[in-house]
Write a structure and sequence with these properties.
alpha/beta; 4-stranded antiparallel sheet; 23% strand
Length: 343
């Protein structure tokens, strides 16, 4: 069965095929993203969810080809965007695509915005790099962009510096920069982190509105399942660098299959339940150096583990139409001959 969406190839905007991104630690390479495959369709919002350290942000940086060259590299796989192989692209050609065809809203706007340049300069820079505009036209367009993301007094804000704005305002500026050239794909990495609940809701509503108006695709990375429920069409659940479950939002919330996904769901506080303590998942995501070489990576934390899970590596397979799970509980073959395939 195909590991991709149930759609024709003409609908594909981004294809990620068997992606491996590794980091060098003490002279050895360790995969932070390991054999990840999925597709983002045109005009679709896909969510990637999982704990800190599971590889979500590394995956997004890999797509943008922004993984640190000092100790990180894309080891294998393909990144096909609109028919173009990003993994084969030279840096100059990739720079022409970043901001224009693929944009990213980074996790922390205070560190992503340059503190020594005005808001207007930073928006105009991307417009002047990718679109043939005069400086006056770029300034006018920058004001229009700030207005479109709900920033008051845009003609004044354009002359201010990042430290003069609140966290929510800075995040809106980051979104304005990201959508300046009307990209086909927007990657949003934890776009509501460190914002209060009211501002979070405003930012999510803004992203949904922009996605509809511009008919762009969005890859939304978060650890917040509430955000996933609010925003996404389809969800990828990542654990320790691998996709462990992939399906549509309704199926994930009402019929999760992987033990890890089930535990994530149980950890969500419920307003109608009076409990003394919240449900937690025992243990931690293994570090890159301690990643198991074989078997299920969730084995040490899994309440449903079997002896075979420690030695047999599960494969992401379709258990129902459009519902993919990587877990031996759902393997079709339980025979010894079948086990040998994975060892």
């Amino acid at each position: 069965m195909s590991l991709y969406n149930q759609s024709s190839q003409e609908d594909y905007l981004l294809e990620v095929k068997h992606l491996e991104t590794a980091f060098e630690i003490e002279g050895e390479l360790y995969n932070a993203v390991d054999d990840v495959s999925f597709v983002v369709n045109k005009n679709q919002i896909i969510g990637i969810v999982g704990e800190s350290g599971c590889g979500k942000s590394v995956l997004s940086l890999s797509i943008m080809k922004l993984v640190s060259h000092e100790n990180g590299r894309i080891q294998g796989g393909e990144l096909i965007f609109n028919g173009k192989h990003l993994e084969q692209m030279k840096e100059g050609d990739m720079n022409k695509m970043r901001g224009k065809d693929i944009s990213m809203v980074f996790q922390e706007p205070m560190t992503s915005l340059n503190p020594v340049f005005t808001i207007g300069y930073q928006i105009q820079e991307i417009l002047l790099n990718h679109i043939k505009l005069s400086k006056e036209e770029a300034r006018f367009e920058s004001i229009a962009l700030l207005k479109s993301v709900g920033i008051p007094r845009p003609d004044e804000i354009i002359n201010e510096y990042p430290h003069q704005l609140s966290g929510g305002m800075r995040q809106r500026v980051m979104i304005a920069i990201a959508i300046a050239c009307q990209p086909k794909l927007l990657i949003a990495d934890e776009p509501t982190t460190a914002l209060d609940v009211t501002v979070q809701a405003q930012i999510l509503e803004l992203l949904k509105e922009i996605q509809k108006v511009n008919e762009m695709s969005v890859l939304l990375i978060t650890h917040d399942l509430g955000v996933i429920a609010e925003m996404c069409d389809e969800v990828l659940v990542m654990y320790a660098g691998k996709i462990v479950e992939r399906t549509n939002v309704d199926t994930l919330f009402y019929g999760p299959k992987h033990p890890y996904t089930k535990l994530l769901m149980r950890a969500i506080p419920k307003m109608d339940e009076d409990v003394e303590s919240l449900t937690t998942i025992s243990g931690m995501v293994p570090s890159l150096k301690n990643m198991p070489r074989k078997g299920c990576r969730f084995y040490n934390r899994c309440p449903a583990k079997m002896p075979r899970c420690e030695r047999i590596t599960p494969q992401l397979s379709e258990i129902e139409i459009g519902h993919f799970v990587s877990c031996l509980l759902y393997e079709e073959s339980r025979h010894i001959e079948g086990e040998n395939r994975y060892e």
